[in-house]
Amino acid sequence: MNLTPRQLRIFVLLAETLSFQKTAEALHVTQPTLSKLLKETEEMLGVPLFERTTRMVRLSREGQSILDSARKITAQHEAGLLELQQRLRERHNRIAVAALPTLAASLLPLLIQRLAEKRTPIRVEVFDPIACEALDLLRERRADIAVTTRREDGTGDLVYEELFTEPFALFHSAKIRPEVNRWLPAQLARLPLITMPVGTSVRTLTDKAFQAASQPFQPVYALRDLNTIARFVQHDCGIALLPASSLDNATQRGVRKTALKGALTRSIGMYVRKECRSSRLVRVAMDELQRLGRSRPE
């Protein structure tokens, strides 16, 4: 028997979706190609893996009996490939950092600049996903460091080092001055607020803070891209309620920031995997991130 990892992955994915269309889309192949590959696998094994009609797809008894083994093999293969990618990054002086979009925009350019000044330059691969995706990239070994907000649960396999805390602030056009200058959800709710979408750490923190004050949070816009938010603010389409580092007054012309007394804050730090010792390159990058965190203005 000479099954390839790709054949096993196709079997596992189809067993999970029970849909040729969804599986073909996930694998970026046509449905006829998927059917052909599955047929070759079944012929090699000598048993049918699925029972198929024009209306439904389900695992055969033989398919059910080997599914767990196929999952373990594909998981081990993918883990091995990801570990190999990590080793290659180290060999070629590369690291991968996953950071929230607001941090990727404000913190990582400074990190890259400082690392470029080292005698052994370190190349940085950057991901800018939402918070949960950043930790997924870390666990999957696609990233060496995740720079994100602190999470209270579900991170027992990771180690967290805080870099800094920062308050939320209002970002608005230079033409207006918000009447609110304190963190009072009831007053903030009267503003045409712009925030980030559900699922982002910024939105999660904001929702919880407003809920704690028994105040519904109903922004007029929920936008993920910071440049888009800046454009909306510049054209008086709303007032953004975001962490203080989200928009840069120096680069976003016409945008002003108003600090809020007693504002909600977020903890920003680095996550690394607990089960492995960080390489020298990763440690250098972490040290630089710590310096950047300490040098931030209060």
UniProtKB/TrEMBL annotation:
GO terms for molecular function: DNA binding; DNA-binding transcription factor activity. Keywords: DNA-binding, Transcription, Transcription regulation. GO terms for cellular component: cytosol. The keyword Transmembrane does not apply. This is LysR family transcriptional regulator. It holds the Pfam family LysR_substrate. Residues 1-60 form the HTH lysR-type domain. Belongs to the LysR transcriptional regulatory family. Signal peptide: none annotated.
